[in-house]
Amino acid sequence: VEAMNRYGTDKPDMRFEMPVQEVSEAFRDGAFKVFRGLVDQGGSIRALVVPGAGRQSRAQLDKLVDEAISLGAKGLVWVRRSEEGDVQSSILKVAGAQALTRVVDMVGAQADDLTLLAGGFGFEASELLGQLRLLLAQREGLIDENRMALAWVVDFPLLEWSETEQRLVSMHHPFTSPRSEDLERLESDPASVRAQAYDLVLNGSEIAGGSIRIHDSSVQASIFRLLKISDDDAKMRFGFFLDALEYGTPPHGGIAFGLDRIIAILAGEPSIRDVMAFP
Question: Domains of the chain, with CATH numbers?
Answer without folding.
Answer: 2-139 (3.30.1360.30), 150-274 (3.30.930.10)
